[in-house]
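Re: weekly structure request thread

Next one in the queue (268 aa):
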Amino acid sequence: MTTTETAANTSAAERAARSYDEADLSSMEFWEKPAAEREKTFAVLRAERPVSWHRPAAEPLIEDPNDQGFWAVVRHADLIEVTKRHSDFLSGEGIVFDSMPQELLDSAQGFIAMDPPRHTKVRRLLTAAFTPKQIRRIDDQIKANAKRVVDGIAHKGEIDFVEECATLLPAHNICDMLGVLEEDRPFIIERSKYAGGVHDAEVMGGQDPLPVLFESMLSQQEFVAGLIADRRANPGKDLRHSPLPGQPARPPADQGAVGRVAAPPAGH
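Done, posted below.
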């Protein structure tokens, strides 16, 4: 047995022997409670156990025998410290409760789930694209989209707020930024809903979550690849074409990174 294997086995044994906190942060029932009820639990943890060890998340997409639990860090100052220690606390291996294959994580998560130096590079590209001129254009687009959404529901009296407002407004805003055509938006909105809804029975409609999630991510990646190719052939004014200081006026080559940043769920 190698030194690495020995260390891993020792670490696993230590985790297995560690007692779980009495607070329930692992069940779906906890997260379905009203925010005020959940806050009572977090208030106790902040006051008494700001760093606590909990059971693995219930109802995982994939059963992982090596998933023995997770730490909950609930105080602001501690969270700030965590964000500064990139070598100790990783985002690139997942920022969700579920244990998932790395390929799925890479497809499903945005650049907030990257670690330096890749996160730094992508963030620098995005920051440079948001020039004062672009910000003014985006501000005008957001106002127009808000009016568009309200005009579309004002006469109805009763609506599904999630479907007709909370989904549409950020989706239109992000699609405008990226130059997604009007006729392509229903497809993007439909595909992207699975990223945050795999545990929602209403969203899944009886489908097996894992294959649906894989198919959804693949179809969005293919769409983004086509969008990048189109922008290179037909330059536009959206963010994906924004020239960066010292860079050619063309979309970035990392289509995976751009695709994950571009996903409409990021605006929800």
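Strands lie at 51-54, 70-73. The CA atoms of residues 228 and 253 lie 8 Å apart.
Next request, please.
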